[in-house]
Write a structure and sequence with these properties.
The complex is a heterodimer of chains A (about 525) and B (about 150). Chain A has four domains: about 5-95, 3-Layer(aba) Sandwich (Glutaredoxin); about 120-325, Rossmann fold, CATH 3.40.50.11540; about 330-420, Roll (Ubiquitin-like (UB roll)), CATH 3.10.20.600; about 425-515, Up-down Bundle (de novo design (two linked rop proteins)). In chain A, about 40% of the residues lie in helices and about 15% in strands. Chain A has helices at about 10-15, 20-30, 70-75, 95-100, 120-125, 130-135, 140-150, 160-170, 190-195, 200-215, 225-240, 275-280, 310-320, 325, 360-365, 400-405, 425-440, 445-460, 465-485, 490, 495-505, 505-510, 510-515; strands at about 5, 35-40, 55, 60-65, 90, 175-180, 215-220, 260-265, 305-310, 330, 335, 335-345, 350-355, 375-380, 390, 415-420. A five-stranded mixed beta sheet of chain A has the order 2-1-3-4-5, covered by helices on one side. In chain A, α11 links the parallel β7 (about 215-220) and β8 (about 260-265). The termini of chain A are far apart. Chain B is of the alpha+beta class and about 150 residues long. Chain B has two domains: about 5-60, no CATH class; about 75-150, Glutaredoxin (3-Layer(aba) Sandwich), CATH 3.40.30. Chain B contains seven helices and five strands; from the N terminus they run ααααβααββββα. In chain B, a hairpin with a 5-residue loop joins β2 and β3. The radius of gyration of chain B is 18 Å and the shape is elongated. Chain B starts with a helix and ends with a helix. Classes of the chains: A alpha/beta (about 525), B alpha+beta (about 150).
Chain lengths: ~525, ~150
């Protein structure tokens, strides 16, 4: 009987040598005359265990990790192909507490299926949402998405259904669905995991969006730093086209939807929806004034839905299982689940999908296992480079959009970056300005000039020069950027800067003493 | 590089009918040639009905596009927060010292161009680097040396 072995094709697994491990396992099996079938799946998201290899057994998939090329002969010696004992044997994958404690809705198939096999996708409840959608009217689909409480997972948390309703209400010969896959926030990788691990769910979500609002053309704007995601997406789109899930006549419904991946070119600001649209039009990625909203005048001036990867990839399960099913997860006005990404100085980094409401502490310690260096976690930055730094005293905050905004922080795209006690928060504040200066599109003055001036003043503070005066100057500057910038890049750079100053004043005020010493 | 104009004309012809053709075209040129030569601005502008200034503006706006020939390999080191939390500042200093170049420069033997990058999406396994299209996680100074040695061998 053929033995099924799963070895991820996910970028992070590849970064730990998954390609070489797959090659070694294939060669070793051949040498030993074993009949194995290697499936290159997505990652289960337990990244500290990559390369995690799984074998199918009668009682379920058994995991081994972290596997290095050198471990391969001993794994075969131990008969791992039948799930036998070995120092790297982790037991049944489904029973791993890290996975068992999660509520995987958007990520239901990631790591389980072969990402580019349409048959595998369909065998795991894929395209059920689209089939339901094809039986409904446009406004019924929009109502289901609205009732589910789904909010934009890119960071802004705007209700997805309301955005769709605006596009649905526009009269136009041409409408577009644009997927924002320019996942530029440091500490985030859930979009990448979906695109590399279950691309069909994104394609299905975009197709449902197209049917709901009456769009016929879609674009996935993918960051250029994700070459593997590009390959996976294109393979999946090709398969969907071949099988009639995309193209001129979707499943015989008479509805057309064409989908194309467009590569970004390394500009962080193009994650902002209006500069993304400029970029798709072939221009410099400069932010547009709003109004008009992209929903009314978006790509090439036509009504356009712009949604993040996770938002769109969550639509299929909502259409499949119903609005209430999804809305039953979560707390307050944050309904459903959030794919959280543990990153930075963390022992067990990876993807944790949970209903809203879990606390930072649970994530950092129960899932993350504390810092990688073994030192105390001093600060976390949540929500990317424009997110606030939170001190230990705020680790009991539940992950909920409103709870975070009360602390003057953001959940953003769900990335959590941990820092141990060796971090210098003044250096982090300086970096926030520097990053903004590098990535500013240059259209508005507070962002373009303010970021450079901010970095200069932080240099003074770090050098211990006129600390009191300069701290006040940074606060004034932050106020200008916060209130005067055109988009979130300049407008939210003050979040990391001011939160670092407010929660860790000792890193700013004591510079003089240490510089003089 | 004699055939450069022919190559570029062929790519323009292939892409000019796309809506918003400029970025896909620039990617195609860089994939094929290794960079976007300034000599291509004029034919691109003509083919896409743009001004040369517009083409120049787009090429120089995006970090990904480069206007000069890079080394045989490109090493990108992530500078973003997650990697900083795991020692990327020391790693970049080490790389610059070993290669004896700064960011955006190429080693004398034309082997490696060093570039900063702001997130490779490998944040659970920081610090991360990318050599050409291959990504590496939890990279130590010794790992980096090995990567460089392999690339220059």
């Amino acid at each position: 009987m053929t033995i099924e072995i799963y070895i991820p094709r996910d970028s992070s697994a590849l970064s730990m040598g998954a390609e070489k491990v797959a090659l070694a396992i294939g060669n070793e099996a051949k040498k030993r005359g074993l009949d194995v079938h290697i499936i290159r799946n997505g990652s289960r998201g337990l990244y500290w265990l990559e390369t995690m290899v799984e074998v199918s057994t009668a009682s379920g998939r058994v995991a081994y990790g972290p596997v290095k090329v050198g471990d391969v002969p001993s794994l075969f010696d131990a008969d791992f192909v039948h799930g036998k004992a070995h120092a790297l044997n982790l037991g049944l994958t489904e029973e791993l507490p890290w996975l068992k404690k999660q509520q995987r809705l958007t990520f239901a198939r990631v790591g389980i299926t072969d990402p580019i096999s349409l048959a595998d996708y369909i065998a795991h409840e894929g395209y059920q949402g689209l089939k339901n959608a094809l039986r409904l009217s446009a406004s019924e689909i929009v109502k289901i998405v609205t009732d589910s409480g789904l909010r934009g997972r890119g960071g802004a948390a705007f209700p997805t259904g309301i955005k769709w309703n605006t596009v649905l209400g526009c009269q136009s010969e041409q409408k577009y669905i644009v997927c924002n896959a320019d996942e530029g926030d440091s500490g985030t990788y859930s979009d990448r995991m979906i695109m590399e691990g279950d691309p069909f769910v994104l394609i299905e979500g975009m197709t449902i969006a197209a049917i709901a609002v009456g769009a016929t053309q879609g674009y996935i704007y993918l960051r250029s730093e994700y070459p593997h995601a590009l390959v996976t997406l294109n393979a999946a789109i090709e398969a969907a086209n071949q099988a009639g899930y995309l193209g001129a006549d979707i499943l015989g419904s008479g509805r057309a939807f064409y989908l194309e991946v467009r590569r970004a070119a390394g500009a962080y600001v193009c994650g902002e929806e209006t500069s993304l649209l400029e970029s798709l039009e072939g221009k410099r990625g400069q932010v547009r004034f709003k109004p008009p909203l992209p929903a009314i005048e978006g790509l090439f001036g036509k009504p356009t839905v712009v949604n993040n990867v996770i938002s769109l990839a969550t639509v299929p399960i909502i259409l499949h299982k119903g609005a209430q099913y999804y809305a039953d997860f979560g707390m307050g006005r944050s309904r459903g689940t959030l794919p959280i990404q543990l990153a930075g100085n963390i022992k067990q980094g990876g993807l944790v999908e949970l209903a809203f409401g879990a606390t930072l502490r649970e994530l950092l310690y129960d899932f993350g296992g504390g810092s990688a260096t073994g030192r105390p976690i001093r600060a976390v930055q949540v929500g990317g480079p424009l997110g606030a730094f939170l001190p230990e005293s705020q680790f009991d905050t539940p992950l909920d959009y409103e709870a975070f905004s009360q602390l003057w922080a953001v959940l953003g795209h769900g990335g959590i970056v941990a820092f141990d006690d060796s971090v210098d928060m003044a250096v982090m504040a300086r970096y926030a300005f520097e990053f903004c200066a590098i990535e500013s599109c240059g259209k508005c003055t507070p962002c373009r000039i303010g970021s450079t001036r901010g970095a200069e003043v932080m240099d003074q503070i770090i050098a211990g020069k006129d600390t009191v005066k300069n701290i006040k100057l940074v606060r004034d500057l932050s106020d200008t950027m916060l209130n005067g910038s055109l988009c979130a890049l300049g407008g939210m750079t003050p979040y990391p800067v001011l939160s670092a100053m407010n929660h860790f004043p000792e890193d700013f005020e004591t510079k003089k003493a240490s510089a003089a010493a | 590089m004699q055939d450069l104009p022919i190559k570029i004309d062929a790519l323009i012809a292939k892409h000019q009918h796309l809506p918003g053709a400029l970025l896909p075209l620039l990617h195609a040129i860089q994939d094929e040639v290794g960079y976007v030569p300034e000599a291509s601005y004029k034919p691109i502008a003509k083919g896409l009905n743009l001004s040369v200034a517009e083409v120049h503006g787009v090429v120089t706006f995006y970090h990904h596009f480069r206007t000069h020939k890079p080394g045989r390999h490109t090493l990108q080191i992530c500078r973003a927060e997650s990697c900083q939390a795991m020692g990327s500042v020391a790693l970049e200093a080490h790389a610059k010292q070993c290669l004896n170049i700064d960011y955006h420069q190429t080693t004398k033997d034309d082997a490696i161009t060093l570039e900063p990058v702001y997130c490779l999406g490998n944040c659970a396994l920081s610090p991360a680097v990318m050599m050409d299209d291959e990504i590496y996680g939890r990279v130590s100074a010794a790992d980096l040396d090995a990567l460089v040695a392999e690339a220059t061998a």
